[in-house]
Amino acid sequence: MYPIVYVNKEHLLENVRSVTALCATQNIEVTGVTKVFAGDPEIARIYVEGGIRRLGDSRVENLKQLQGLDAEKWLIRPPMIDEIEALVAYADASLNSELETIQAINDAALKAEKVHNVILMVDLGDIREGFIDHDELVSVAIETEKMRGVHLYGIGVNLTCFSFVQSDKEKMSVLSELAEVISNKIGRKLDIVSGGNSATLDLMLKDGIPGEVTNLRLGESLLFGKERAHFTFLPDTHQDVFTLACQIVEVKEKPSVPWGEIGVDSYGNSPTFIDRGIRKKAICAIGKQDFDVETSTAIDQDLIVLGASSDHLMLDVTDCEKAYKVGDIIEFQLGYFSTMRAYTSKYVTKKYF
Asked: With helix as H, strand as E and coil as C, how does 180-192 read?
């Protein structure tokens, strides 16, 4: 049943191989982020086939689905205290910023007779997760090194996610210097220095990443072939891995502007409309619950996306060459958030080719 997301596995595999090869020229390994597609093993398997040895997700439930794949599993957000037991069971590593949480992981790992890898996060300006106080970071690193149930795997940073602060040479140098300080304190070199996400690729391509940075956590660049800082497409990649097909349920001539007193939407905003006169409009059986209008692009460039409610998508098809009718299919190329929402929705069918 529609709506359907079609996944081009061949193009995804080519993306993975192109991006990982690009990173390898800078001696950087990739952790493939799987949260966009809700940890679907069908897609994660393509990551592994393309040469990725580490998979990262922000939910332990998704990592549980990936247990059959030969790759290291990372939880890429600080774990909740309530999920520590599951974390130790299904994740090999996690990103952390609280000593209390690391101690809880240590206790659970000892009980399970395991050793869990810990990556300490540094906040270098995005004001999301991580240590701002560098002395505290070093102190927690020393304490973590003493624990038997956890292994101090490395340190990392996240940028361009909350405040959209960009990665630059100075920030990567600070990260590298902190890694060196910690290595000297514990008497060994850290295994991992993770320099961020797809937004760091632009800096990497400009030779702006110090050699101490050994890892990037990538999702958008693998799936959509673009770096996140300036949204430029990477060489030898495809942007058509995910295609959404939805079905028209109504086609009618209607005014461009509504009539009556206009209220506010669910966010408290009052919508505005452009008066184009009477237009031919189509409604598709899909809405904001299932995909993101702003990060989707209609394949038929002549149609106009008017907007969506939770389960209706409104289109202006007046200028389209095709005479759309009820039952016809409209296709969209999906971007990051649209794919994420489609994969989270149980109402969207997923098909692979």
From this structure: HHHHHHHCCCCCE
* Catalytic choice (35, 73, 171, 281): 35
Query: Are 171 and 254 members of one domain?
Result: no
List, for residues 24-48, the tens digit of each pLDDT value.
999 999 999 999 999 999 999 999 9
Task: Determine the residue type at 256.
Answer: S
- Residue 140's Cβ-count burial label (10 Å; 0-12, 13-18, 19+) is buried
**Any catalytic annotation for residue 35?**
yes
Domain boundary among 224, 257, 287: 224
- In terms of residue numbers, what domain contains 143? 9-224
pTM: 0.94
- How do strand 4-7 and strand 242-255 relate by DSSP bridges? antiparallel
The backbone torsions φ and ψ at residue 64, rounded to the nearest 5 degrees and listed phi first, read -60, -35
Strand runs labelled E in the chain: 4-7, 29-33, 54-57, 72-75, 93-96, 116-122, 150-157, 192-194, 215-218, 242-255, 278-284, 296-298, 304-308, 313-316, 329-334, 349-352
C-alpha to C-alpha distance for 228 and 208, rounded to whole angstroms: 16
CA 341 to chain centre: 11
The burial class, CB within 10 Å (0-12 / 13-18 / 19+), for 216 is buried
